[in-house]
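Sample entry (306 residues):
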Amino acid sequence: MPLSERSVVDKIISQCGKNRVLLVPPGDDAAVLVAGKSKITVSTDIMIASSHFPPSLPLEAVGFRAAVSNFSDLAAMGSQPLAFLASIAVPKIFTEEQVLEIVAGIKRACKRHGAVLAGGDMKCARELTICGTAIGTQRENPILRSGAKPGQVVFTTGNLGEATCGQFSLQKGLNQKDLEKSFMEPPVRVKISLAAAKEGAGGVDITDGLIFSCCEIAHRSKVGIDIDLLPISPRVRMFASKHDLGLLGLADYGGDYELLLTTSEESFKKLSKKFKLIRIGKVVKKKGVRLLGVPVESSGYDAFRH
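Predicted structure, serialized as tokens:
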């Protein structure tokens, strides 16, 4: 039977232990641990050159993306980044300068999001591999995939598809600098997530695609989600049309470090006064996920298919 990332992850989660140290059971974007009177959020993510980095991507940008992928998981929980650990494995042909370029990118990401590079590990491997671990502080109740309720607004913290178009541009040498920057320096919505956590939001990081993320929330919350709008900017629509890229595919491919959140109408209006948010649908009682009334199933990014 072929490997499926979702299937194997679910089986691993079922074997994880239950303990009073774990405030949130395994299965969300990050673990939330109780440490005395404090709550600590921990996330880990691995990136491999052949799967995650186009050959033309500068090494500094490689390090930056490796760090923000973890910080985005913290943001999805409503957590403030605190520290980052980086385990880096490189081929023997790498130079010291190349390794330090990667570290410079990691440090820049840490500085941007209020964290410190606190250590890590170094090994030799056949291809560049970075495994990061981010640690954050959790002041409010965490944002959970199981936190959606019927009647709530479903919204994103930004447009989708820009990172995928940027990656496409890098691979094809199209020199679309604005889109390429979206891939090289994706945003991490920490400020929005901290404010949303205060409003009791539910949600998830959208790095694995919009439909998958909606299906995750619907499944974990035992609700349905009706999507009325694909959050795609005009420039991405123009790029997609020019290069024959499907809009739904762009929104669902993954790689965008935006958040998919749910809150009450009142809370959404309150948050919208402070942040630029995109309302895309609503939470309903009827199970399943529908796009413009048509049922859709989870696809999104799968490590064994991409």
